[in-house]
Amino acid sequence: MSASKVLIGCWLALVVLSTATVLLGNAGSTLLLAGAVLAVALVKAWVITEGFMELRHAPPMWRLLLFGWPLAMAGGILLAMNL
User: Fold this and answer.
1) CA distance 18 to 24
2) CA 66 → CA 35, 42, 47, 59, 74, distances in Å?
3) Residue 24: which residues within 8 A CB-CB, separation 6 or more?
4) Domain coordinates of the chain in residue numbers?
5) Model confidence pLDDT, tens digit, residues 3-62
6) Greatest CA separation for the chain
7) What angle do CA 47, 35, 25 make, to 5 degrees?
8) In whole angstroms, what separates CA 77 from the centre of its chain?
């Protein structure tokens, strides 16, 4: 697959995921919905790092570091919401 097709696919995925985030955010304010919004945000982070930043070809350590940060933030937010 050519690089431009990958980028267009990533862009379309981000548009759909961003729309899903807005719809979920406007649906209410429960812990389940907050978890769903965070899950969508994690998928968006994965699309950005693997697609736009092209880290799918990078060493595993870089991929782990750049995806680990949003994962840690989402975990921290969920932990704070449960307290």
Assistant:
1) 10
2) 21, 11, 12, 11, 14
3) 33, 36, 37, 40
4) 3-82
5) 889 899 999 999 999 999 999 999 988 888 989 999 999 999 999 999 989 898 899 999
6) 47
7) 85
8) 14
